[in-house]
Design brief:
90 residues; single chain; 3 helices; alpha+beta; globular; three-stranded mixed beta sheet; 3 strands
Amino acid sequence: MTSPVESVEDWLIDQGTEDAILFDGLRGAIVGVAQRFGQPDVVAYDYEKAVQLIQQQSDDCSYEEAVEYLEFNVCGAYVGKTTPVFVRMR
């Protein structure tokens, strides 16, 4: 049995992805680690949960404004081979 993980950083180290990039303010939207053949593993975020977190962190932010912010400032940001991915859950 494994011991409980105390932080996202500890969990990423446990997964072997300690060099993974994390977006500020969106840790609550992490759903796992994505693997691609021949590429480094990356953090996977729940898209809708990320939108909700942006709305919570911004006063008077509508759903549409949060989506626009996420798309332009986060999803549209390429920061290297370990750029996180966003998953649209069913």
